[in-house]
Amino acid sequence: MIKLIIADMDGTLLDKNKKVGTDFWATEAKLHESGILFAIASGRQFYNIEALMDRIKDRTLFLAENGTYAFYKGKEIFVKPLDKAAAIEFIKIGRTIENGFLIVCGKNSAYIESTNEQFTTEVHKHYNRVTVVADLTQVKDDILKFTVCDFNNAERNSYRYFEQFKANFKVAVSGDIWLDITDFHANKGTAIVEIQKLLGITFDETVVFGDYLNDIEMMQTAKYNYAMKNAHPEIIKISSFITEFDNDNNGVSRAIEALVFGEK
Question: What is the pTM of this model?
Answer without folding.
Answer: 0.89
